[in-house]
Amino acid sequence: MKIDHYQTQLASGSHWSLIVRKGVQLTLTDLKGGANVGMLMYNPTLLMEKYNAPDTLKCQHTFKLTRGHCLYSDMGRIFFSITDDHFGWHETLCGNSHAEHVASQWGKRDYQSDHNAWHQNGNDSFLVELAKYNLDKRALAANVNWFSEVRSDAEGRLSLSRQSKAGDAVTLRAEMDTLVLLHTCPHPLDKAEHYPRSEVSLTLSLAEPVQDDDYCLNFRPENRRGFENNALYHFGPGGQ
Q1: What is the DSSP-derived secondary structure letter of residue 136?
Q2: Which residue, 32, 19, 17, is CA-closest to 197?
Q3: Per-residue pLDDT for 207 more than 90?
Q4: In what order do the strands lie in the sheet with 5-11?
Q5: Residue 39 clears pLDDT 70, i.e. is over it
Q6: pTM for this one?
């Protein structure tokens, strides 16, 4: 059976992974407001190739991620382009919450005692998904946090300044086959009184082919070189 559309929902404290094929678009929608979605990316045929946050920011001369930006691997290739964005600011500096952070902020809960009301953290969520592909903590990298705006004060201290509202969405177009890991655990700088209980919709659909006037392709000169690197990677019989 062939499908051209897939949708699911991720409750707070969830994790998810899939190999998203080139030419597929992934849309994340905050259903209740206040979501945070952590994301990591890997080349499924060369798992040592992974998302590179420093290169993604510096080559596009930016501190934030939004429409037009591309998500780069450490081989100079593009995993995803951000083709649509209702929120306008996503961060890739602060990493994940850890068990001790969550326990300190909201108290310790475990699945054995609290079942679906437990307090999961981003680091352990990624480790669970990595294990499905025979990877461990050595494969971790700086991740994207969708729907979380982080700003710096005059002394360089970072704080979570804004999160999304219900209905805010971001759409990513896969420029190569990509192993995607997601979690919906709290942002590491979240100081909410209660453990966040968000819900996120995840939709996969077919993207329109990239044209020469594509917004992401032309957003920065560096992006065009990234697309050229992808074209070389896919060159040859069976390439896309």
Answers
A1: -
A2: 32
A3: yes
A4: 5-11, 199-206, 24-30, 169-174, 78-85, 70-72
A5: yes
A6: 0.94
